[in-house]
Batch of 3 targets.
Target 1
Amino acid sequence: MDRDFLEAFDALPFGGYGASAYGKRWRITKSRFADARSQKLEAEELGGNGHVSMNLYRLATGHALLKPCEMSEEIVREFVLEVRPD
């Protein structure tokens, strides 16, 4: 997993909040489970059809495993690098 993506993902706060990406408004929810070894990000474009959903698993080896939900890794990576919380 590339460092830029993980740094951008880790910088996103947990909980629900508004954000901007691609010149549009989004509602973000970032959750953690299993002592933060499993994390979920869901994003819905406000007033549009945009949707981003992913899970990130922190492995015992120190690596991270990205699992997008019904979309490509590229879409998820680009979104996480682009999104700016309020």
Target 2
Amino acid sequence: MGYAEDLSRFEDLASRYIPRREDWTPSEEAVFGPPDPYRVPKDEADRMRYRAVKHQFERHYRLNRMYHDFCREAKVSPEEIRGLDDLDKVPLIPSEFFKDCPPGKDFALWLGNVYTGELPRIKVGGRSPSHDQVIDSFNSAGMAVCYSSGTGGRHTFMPRDMRCFLTNEYAMAKGVISMFFPHWNPQMRGYLLLPHPFKTNLFAGRLGTIFFDIMRDVNVAVDRKVDTELIRLSMSEGHGLKGRAFKYIAKRKSERTVQDIITWIERNQREGHEMALVGAPFLVHSVIERLKQEGRTFDLGERGCVLTGGGWKVHESKRMPEAEFRRDVEEFLGIPPDQCIDLYGMVEANGWMTQCPEGHHLHIPHSYMHTMVLDDEYRPVGYGETGRLAFLDGSMGSYPGFIITSDRVRMLERCPVCDRPGPVLEPGVTRVAGKESRGCAEEVRRMVSSDMRRGAR
């Protein structure tokens, strides 16, 4: 089957994710129009990206009072954005803003003020509801409020409507399938190394719902309810009876999870199925460590794929180099490096940067994501310079997706290895000095991890 036919099957499968063509704005045109988000010619991508970002900037300026006041303070209005070079003028919101939210019913008001447009009717019960109770109230009314990165004790909370959330899922899946082609098909079996998508509002967990559509059978590593309280316990140092009990249970569950994954690989290899391990690299690393201890290997070859995302810490003080990880995947699982790629995304954005199999650089979907690198004074720097990542998300309609992150990156004008047009990030995204480790994989690592070598003794 050819590339166009395979994408056609994906379009049919994901039809519920795509709005009707007559309802498309420049944002939908930029996301759903290109057949491959990483092969849009530069001139076409520039045109689409400008129109998408301009469209969203005008919307948020007009409909979001908080952002309107912020822009007035910065003395920037939509009339000043007349071309691609003017996009750097769009006022940026620090990602830390989305962590500074109040408790109780004030949290509901905070979400309503961040959101752009008219909210559905939402009823929040109780005098002092928890964050989880407020989120459940919003989501019961048809929203998709998610959170992430509570590693420093403060979660990032983002209020999306379902149309925006489905756009996010679609963008991620389309990018993954484009990069893995022809090694991805709807008949493959998958193991999500993440919380169960239908039992959490953790961003990475919720996003996993689309894998139930683009793979035949899906197993899940963390098959229990995951809320902010569970994550708080997982991030604690185990102080107190409740914290120590959680650490003990997590240690036992992590050992069982690793064995379950190995058993799942054995069964699917025996039955001749294609397989994909998707999610936290820590769990793949733990599987490989167990295989090393037992002196075992698999030879999955082209029947296996590994898609990682969310962070590269494998123990409290150890970050695994990605090249070393791919070598271990090839040696112990038999999966070649071009079928082991990483995905980089943020709870604040709909844009997903996916590694190319040829060089493992992170490709930016430049038809709707305008990406910048800022110096310490928050001024844009040129290609090849290292600094703080910022972006304008032309697909984000639920809140102003114009964000300064705390991630440190180096951006190149195009990939030095493959022939895809458009800018890329070098592998190895890190945090700005002084910022806590970020990413859903870090939360999963702490949630299910223990020292595997100690646990095996």
Target 3
Amino acid sequence: MMRDGRFVVLLFLTGALCLGAAISSQADTGKITKEARETVETVKKYTIQQKEAFQRAAHEELTAVQKQIAVLQGKVRDMSASARADLQESINELEKKRDMLKEQLNKMQTTTDEKWHVIRSSVETTIEELKDACRKVMSRVP
């Protein structure tokens, strides 16, 4: 059964090669140009989809961190003055990192689809640093 399929494919390719030799180079060029345009368009759509998916995921991370900061701020109110001052300083640092992430995401939004990957690595690093800092601060809170 497989031999028959292979034979058909071989026969098809042989016919295509013979037919291809008879086609003019102008028709070949037009076909190649059309396929190249289609490929470029497909890659462009894929890039846009990747950028949008990354931005959604980054915004979800940002929202999660903002919720953690709100929880921390609520716990600060119930602490002693010295513990409150120490924790508030840590929360202020978290808020600075959060704001930096917001700026990076805004910059990514206005960046062309072809160039967004340049900012992506810095956004990923900022997200990881922010999440790690949140974990550390949360571990110090009763």
